[in-house]
Each structure stands twice: as structure tokens, then as C-alpha cells.
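Whiteboard transcription, Tuesday session. T.W. wrote the C-alpha cells on the left side:
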């Protein structure tokens, strides 16, 4: 599985040079528009088609191989868990332990949690790796592009900040990350509780099927229905808490995801209006800043999945 993981990682990292190609394309295309150069603009449309073709091909191949890697690792993990569960009558000992929270619903742990763990492990590991390498690529590019200072007066003092767009990106993301965690922290506990309650409900249904004959002979349907309703109401109760918390988090993260595409344009607008950058340069700065902020914002964009 390791060689396949390396191939997938290489395909993920290939998105970075494609991203650099797209940033350069922004400069070339919008400069052509500013000059009203029809031939150059049409040529850049063809270049854009090549970029999209390369990007889509890279993504599809990487996604296809990732799915194969995930099922391979899930198979290995499931086999290990089954061996440990069945060895030394562990499955029986767990049932006799009183159903503690640490060992409840081992069937779900083997069937469902192993899949979730492998899927998240591969996706999050690859995303983090790509984000780290991308930052080391895009930050120097943004530094070279934002070679104009921000100048203003504050309390009678003249303030000059060189390469201010580079400093603005991590400050903007750091403040946003802190607010995201403040609003979304309860999601971890609520998500774990939801998994417990869903598993308890499924287990009670499976148990009723297993003991169908004794329940039918003793007329225990009413008692079983009461138990089902009790476990299901626990699911609904916690689910409403999840809905409310996701709404609270979304009130910040959704506008953040929308504005992150426009913030760089606003930040670079003074330089454009002062004639320090061309329209193509403005679009190039916009793309580079977006790449830096997007990779720095991994925690924000992935907060629900991480929880």
C-alpha cells in the first residue's frame, strides 16, 4: 500500500504546478483583455482549456487510485480487528464487561468505524501534505508579486508596510481559525454522542430480531417498542443539538468561504488604482493570495470532518 500511497501523493502534489500555471494564465489573459488584444485572448482561452484538462485528469486518476488504496487498507484493518475480537474469547468478555462506553458496539467499530478511519486518514493526510508543500510554493510567489507597499498615516505617523499582502494572509486566517474553533468546538462531543446513540439504536433493533421468538411468546412487543422509541428519541435530541451547532458554525464559515475569493482583490485594489499593477497583475495577485489563504484555511474548511 505504501508505493500506491506515494503515487497518489505525487498526483496530489501535481496540483501545485498546475495551480502556478493557472496563476500565470490569469496575468496573461487579463493583460490581453486590458490591451484589447483579441488574438492573445483567444490563445489564452486555448491555454485555459489545457489547464482544465490537466487538472481534471490529475484529479480523476488520483481519486480512482485513492479509492483502491482505501479499500486495501480497510481490508487489512478489518482483518486485524476481527482477529483481535475473536482471539481468546474477547467478543464474549466484552459482552460480560457490562457494556462500558469504551467497548460498546464492537460490531460498529469493525464494520463502520474502520471504514471511516481509513477514509479520513488517507484524505486528511494527503490534504495536509499538499497544503504544507503548497504553502512553501505559493508564499514566495505572493512575496515576489506584492512588491508594492501599503502606506497610510496613523496618529500622525507615516506607516509603510512592505509586501503587506503576504502578512495579511496568515493574520486573516489566524483570526478566522480561532473564531471557527470557538464556534465549532462542541461539534466533537456532539458527533461522538451521535455515533453512540445511532449504534445503540441499531443494536437494539438487531437484538430484537435475534430474540424474536421469546419476545413473541411473552408478548414483549410493547416493551421493545418503548425501548426503541427511547433510543430513537435520544438520537433526535442530539441531532437537534448538532443542527443548531452546525448553523452557528456555518454563520461564520459560509461567508468566510465566499469572501475569501474577493478579499485579495480588495487588498490589492489600492495598488491597481495607483497604477502600480496591471489588470493582469491584479488577477495574478488575487489567484496567488487565494492559494495561500485556501491552504492556510485547511483547518476551517475541514473542521466538520475533523470533528
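and on the right, the sequence the group agreed on:
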Amino acid at each position: 500500500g505504501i508505493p500506491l500511497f506515494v503515487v497518489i501523493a505525487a498526483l496530489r502534489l501535481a496540483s501545485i504546478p498546475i495551480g502556478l500555471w493557472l496563476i500565470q494564465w490569469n496575468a496573461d489573459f487579463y493583460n490581453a483583455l486590458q490591451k484589447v488584444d483579441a488574438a492573445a485572448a483567444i490563445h489564452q482561452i486555448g491555454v485555459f482549456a489545457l489547464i482544465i484538462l490537466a487538472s481534471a485528469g490529475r484529479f480523476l486518476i488520483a481519486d480512482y487510485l485513492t479509492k483502491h488504496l482505501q479499500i486495501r487498507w480497510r481490508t487489512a484493518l478489518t482483518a486485524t480487528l476481527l482477529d483481535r475480537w475473536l482471539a481468546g474469547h474477547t467478543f464474549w468478555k466484552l459482552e460480560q464487561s457490562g457494556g462500558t462506553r469504551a467497548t460498546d458496539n464492537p460490531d460498529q467499530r469493525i464494520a463502520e468505524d474502520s471504514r471511516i478511519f481509513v477514509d479520513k486518514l488517507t484524505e486528511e493526510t494527503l490534504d495536509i501534505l499538499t497544503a504544507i508543500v503548497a504553502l512553501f510554493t505559493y508564499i514566495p510567489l505572493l512575496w515576489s508579486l506584492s512588491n508594492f507597499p501599503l502606506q497610510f498615516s496613523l496618529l500622525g505617523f507615516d506607516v509603510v508596510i512592505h509586501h503587506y499582502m503576504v502578512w495579511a494572509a496568515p493574520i486573516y486566517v489566524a483570526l478566522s481559525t480561532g473564531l471557527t474553533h470557538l464556534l465549532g468546538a462542541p461539534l466533537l462531543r456532539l458527533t461522538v454522542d451521535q455515533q453512540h446513540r445511532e449504534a445503540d439504536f441499531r443494536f437494539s433493533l438487531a437484538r430484537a430480531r435475534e430474540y424474536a421468538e421469546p419476545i413473541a411468546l411473552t408478548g414483549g412487543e410493547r416493551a421493545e417498542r418503548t425501548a426503541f422509541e427511547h433510543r430513537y428519541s435520544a438520537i433526535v435530541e442530539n441531532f437537534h443539538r448538532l443542527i443548531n451547532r452546525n448553523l452557528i458554525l456555518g454563520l461564520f464559515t459560509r461567508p468566510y468561504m465566499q469572501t475569501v475569493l474577493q478579499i485579495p482583490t480588495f487588498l490589492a485594489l489600492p495598488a491597481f488604482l495607483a497604477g502600480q499593477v496591471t489588470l493582469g497583475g491584479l488577477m495574478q495577485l488575487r489567484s496567488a493570495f487565494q492559494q495561500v489563504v485556501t491552504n492556510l484555511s485547511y483547518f476551517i474548511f475541514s473542521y466538520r470532518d475533523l470533528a
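Someone added at the bottom: The mean pLDDT is 83.
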